Amino acid sequence: MDPGNLALQYFLSGITKGSIYAVVAIGFNLIYSATGVLNFAQGEFVMLGGMVAVTLAQFVPLPVAVTGAILAVAVVGCLLELLFFRKLRHHSILHLIIITIGLSIVIQEAALHLWDEKVRSLPYFTGNEISSVRVFGAAISPQVLWVLGAVGVSVAGLHVFLRYTLKGRAMRACSSNPEAAMLAGINISNMRTLAFGLSAGLGALAGCVISPITMTHYEMGGGLAIKGFAAAILGGLGNPMAAVVGGLLVGVLEAASVRYLPAAYNDVSAFAILLLVLFVRPHGLFGAPAGAQVREH
Amino acid sequence: MSLMRRIPPLLPFLLCAGVMVSLQQLMRATGTQYCLTQLTMSLYYAIVVMGLCLLMGHAGQVSLGHGAFFAIGGYTSAVLTTHNFSAWGHSSLGGWLQQGGVLIAKEDVFGNAILTVSPWAAFLAAMLLTTLVALLIGYPALRLRGHYLAMATLGFGLIVSKLLVGSTLTGAADGINGVPPWPLAGSLTVTGKTAARVQNYYIACALVLLLLLLLRNLLRSRIGRALQAIHDRETAANAMGISTAAYKLKVFLLSAWLAALAGVFFTHFTGGIGPSEAGAFKSVRYVALAAAGGMANLWGVTVVSTALNYASLRGWFGSLDNAVFGILLILIITLAPQGPLKPLGAWLRRVLRLRNLSEERLERS
């Protein structure tokens, strides 16, 4: 294969992984905007989505299994908010963040005991392991198209939701000024629950579409949370659409370091570039410096 | 009565020393002195958490990269004290270093003559390297606030751990073994040998108590109050003329030193170090332990982190170790966000005050 095509191949694989990071980063942003909390259990939603779908797929057709997994994990997200964050609103933000770390450890262990330590995966949505589609001379699996399509559609849907529906506008109002939103008659607590449910559901969707390519494993959540956090920070916290750019960038950087550096160093360049970006632009690529300065949740 | 009032500041230290001694005596009496090894390790880990207590609880900065500083300290002394520098032996620089006691000649396990750096010199080199790295990463990171700083330190930690795994000098995925003992002074030696187990336990205890005393005094000085102001309202502190940037950098450096110091002692004690010490999971765990101990409460974080690390090093919860850690973390933060020692202390004080009151009443009557 000529070098151009090889580079394209790596680029496409970077975009595929990056789109998953983007979804995790959007989840970070939704919850951060609504509550000020960084939810480090975000990666666990992706893992749970994959796990539940794999289990359901043994009994029902694939589309039903995927839908069921998304709904189930969204319910889990809502429950987390109802059980923990609604009750603990008067704790400091840092304490709540530590609680999400605790939750992520507990969810991971629960998954280990509910399922087991085996790697599992959903079947390919169309075709199988060896079928491929040629795009500009690079061969990609049809599942990659599913990933990009599903992520693209859900991101566009989220954008429309936040921009043009009453609920979505209410959510944005909550994040820009909670007190004013409350005075306007918006139920902030329910908006927070909705934010948790939405980001959990989105995470589960990502977990389902990526499962045939990267497999689902109980330990996958931690790494995804770190990469998703990096993507959210790179884009600038509080802006879900900037997170998409952040996620794709992290994915492509990662693929590039796999291509050009020894395997042992595979994440080094991605994080080094992230550090450089942060040192030059302390509020991320698209973040607003003024907003971050004297903001209290 | 005046004596009673003057004792309290030192009372916790005496109490703590008492608990440390009675723990050792208890283990000696029950023949479980082998547990001291894990207790010593937990005490060294607690030093890292003490640094984070300063950084998070008093300066309001979150670092998810302190495992990396621990590893930088540990690896620097491990590499320098095990690497063979005999190629330098014939040069004038090597001879000069040997005369100064920086390089020492000895035999390896196969009886070959080798030349390695002395533990004290390696310790100084480790602290120097930590200073350099902490300034390099801390200076630009000062511009970052809150979550952005957390990400920068997390990224830094990940880079360090990848570099350690990728480099043959640091033993790649195996880490470094066979780190020699560290003769501190006289017959005091930091080593994992069974005969020196009790001695090493007391070395760790003394180090922890000394650091606690130093940090407590630091926090009660002008610096401590400035840090408190930064923690509560950074903008307000700035407006009052506190150079927030300088203070944050100083505290970051101090906490990095503490982590590296713990790393050096730990490496000499266990005789080796592996790349997992720099991993993100370790760093996150340190932060979680600091939060569980009450964040700003030096005593709380020391006790909680020693206890929890000891429990997991001894394998009390078996394969459920992580689950128990997660649940304890959630419970402590939900029920006692100031750390478990705060409510306990408040209760003790209430009991003591009640007793004092009743004594006074008795005296009066």
What is the secondary structure topology, with strand pairs?
The complex is a heterodimer of chains A (297) and B (365).
Chain A: H1 3-35, H2 42-56, H3 62-85, H4 93-114, E1 133-135, E2 138-140, H5 142-164, H6 166-176, H7 178-183, H8 188-214, H9 220-235, H10 240-260, H11 268-280, H12 289-293
Helix pairs in contact in A: 1-5, 1-6, 1-8, 1-9, 1-10, 2-3, 2-4, 2-8, 2-9, 3-8, 5-6, 5-8, 6-8, 9-10, 10-11
Chain B: H1 2-6, H2 11-30, H3 35-58, H4 66-82, H5 92-99, E1 103-107, E2 113-117, H6 119-141, H7 146-166, E3 176-177, E4 182-185, E5 188-190, H8 197-219, H9 222-232, H10 234-239, H11 244-270, E6 272-273, H12 280-292, H13 298-313, H14 321-335, H15 341-364
**Main β-sheet of chain A, in a few words?**
2 strands, antiparallel
Report the portion of residues of chain B in β strands.
5-15%
Count of helical regions of chain A: 12
Radius of gyration of chain B in whole Å, from Cα?
A: 22 Å
Number of domains of chain A: 1
What gyration radius of chain A follows from the Cα positions, in whole Å? 19 Å
Strand content of chain A: under 5%
The outline of chain B comes out as globular
- Tally of extended strands of chain B? 6
Helical fraction of chain B: 55-70%
Helical/strand content category of chain B = mainly alpha
CA-based shape of chain A: globular
